[in-house]
Amino acid sequence: MNIDFIKDQFPDLAKDQKLIEEIAQVATIKSYNKGEVIIDYGDYIKYVPMVISGLLKIIREGENDNEILLYFLGSGESCAASFSCCMIKKRSEIKAVCEEKSKILMIPISYADQWMGKYSNWRDFVINMYDARLLSLIDTIDRVSFAKLDEKLLYYLDEMVSHKSDQVLNISHHEIALDLNASRESISRLLKKLEAAGKISLSRNEITIIDL
DNA sequence: ACATTAAGTGATT
DNA sequence: AATCACTTAATGT
């Protein structure tokens, strides 16, 4: 497998050549398109996913139709929770949905486990990912409990565009509304304001970020 | 051309 | 800010 991208996306891991070689041996690369579900509720997780490119959305769904957006995973990021989740053979409590065409490096859990002792770079990577996820969760709590909708929307757009190479988001107002637990109309109106302020431009299923 | 889906708007609570 | 009712616009068949 061609593993050159690891040096770009995961520079901390790339420092250890042996680790890189082993990753190349055991990992597989999977591609997903927008909307595909990568991990669903109740799934047993067998791989630690590492995002090479694209964007994943990690969400928690309630009994009704409401969902909470926990965080995004962009390139160079990984979901450490999946690691512990499969270590204790628990079913997934969360859902991972592909937000835009993505490539994911899948590390079989048995290796991910074994590398913890074998490679300090890997161990540091996993710990850093835990820390990063925890911080973004705390951030999320702040957002959902305190922020007003217009602030949430700004944060959402910012978060989304920061994980992308270009400034164009292919998403409908409806989808945003679901992610933010708001009504579609509110989102449309707020977006309209942002457009009037020259921060974004709108067209069907497309939002171009000009300057937030 | 028609149906469907996305988005815009005003009124009401 | 949510909901409703309705309009307008874009897109698919």
Describe the structure.
By secondary structure, this protein is of the alpha+beta class. It folds into two domains: 142 residues, Jelly Rolls; 63 residues, Orthogonal Bundle (Arc Repressor Mutant, subunit A), CATH 1.10.10.10. The protein has nine helices and eight strands. The strands form two sheets. Strands 1, 2, 3, 4 and 5 form a five-stranded antiparallel β-sheet that branches. Strands 6-8-7 form a three-stranded antiparallel β-sheet. Strand 3 and strand 4 form a beta hairpin. The chain is globular and about 55 Å long. The protein starts with a helix and ends with a strand. The mean pLDDT is 88. It binds a DNA duplex (13 and 13 nucleotides) through helix 9.
Helix content: 40-55%
Annotated CATH homologous superfamily of the largest domain = Jelly Rolls
Regarding CATH, which class of the largest domain? Mainly Beta
Termini Cα gap: 40 Å
Q: Which structural class do the helices and strands define?
A: alpha+beta
Gyration radius (Cα, Å) is: 18 Å
**How many strands, what sense, and barrel or not for the largest sheet?**
5 strands, antiparallel
Uncertain stretches of 5 or more adjacent residues:
none
Mean pLDDT: 88
CATH architecture of the largest domain: Sandwich
Number of strands: 8
Please state roughly what percent of the residues sit in beta strands, choosing from under 5%, 5-15%, 15-25%, 25-35%, 35-45% or over 45%: 25-35%
Number of helices: 9
Total domain count: 2
CATH topology of the largest domain: the name is: Jelly Rolls
How does the overall form come out from the CA principal axes? globular
Instruction: Give the helices and strands as they follow along the chain.
Output: HHHEEEEHEHHHEHHEE
